[in-house]
Amino acid sequence: MTDASAVMGQMDKPRRKPWPAELNALIGLVVIMAIFEIVGWSLVGQSFLMNKLRLSIMITQVAVVGILAVGVTQVIISGGIDLSGGSIIGASAMIAMSFAQVGTNPRAIFAAQGLVDLPILFPILVGLSVALIGGLINGALIAYVKLPPFIATLGMMVSARGVALWYTKGQPISFPTNEFMALGDGLMPVWIFIGVAALFSLIMKYTVYGKHTYAIGSNEASARMSGINVERHLMLVYVIAALLAGLAGLVLTARAQTAQPVFGTMNELDAIAMAVIGGVSLSGGRGSILGTALGMLIFGVIFSGFIFLSVDAYYQNMVKGAIIVGAVALDQWRQKRQAMEA
Fold this sequence. Notes:
This protein is mainly alpha-helical.
């Protein structure tokens, strides 16, 4: 066989279909759950998976960050990054809670103005408005001022955290109405996450918004040449991400029945790690909400398993850092492999 025919033979071979990143995440989730189940019986003498209370606590804890991660996923797919989500959670939670207090609380912030015992819609709109401002600033700086997303959202991260601390001079805000607390009652955070994830999964897959987001992340210059208004679309992406961070802040503070200025600290990194573990590429243009949801479950299983095995919290933070680095390294390896197979 000649060299030319050999080359033609290689070209005729069907190209192997890429292994879905979501399937990798699913396999990883099953393996991790199996490991904790085996170790649980070996060291603790009980099942890790068969405890319904433990599993419900686990999924409820990660659901709030999962809501944030849905927005972060869209930002990363568009080719950007958002470091401000955790701080927007803190600022939204603090300001929203101040309008959700009961009138029987003598220390209610706006008791003198009569802004107590308000309908639930009022603090929700206030919290989302705070998040909207943050998203508009992020979007304007990135889309129109042309600041790198890392720098713009880093500035918002610091500023929004400053707002959360300044609002009550670092003091917590407590005693919300029963109506507001219902947002975080029981498995409500999980249902809210499922609703948000399902909605944006459909949006990203079937709407013009989703198609434009993938197009911009894959090649911004080509997207611009095809007629996409890149600046307007990026503004929308960052606004949606901020609004979802605000929603996460509302659910978190309702669940905790108090608002702390430190709420959301480092949650932005957790959300990024969840997305990358689930197959979202940091270079943009690839990934899915389903993958992020699987990444969220992996995070939840790992840290619930550590608590189950009584692993010290300091070691948990060390492992969290290793997971974030490992997730980025996995994304880089995945990109190189796809480039070689192309």
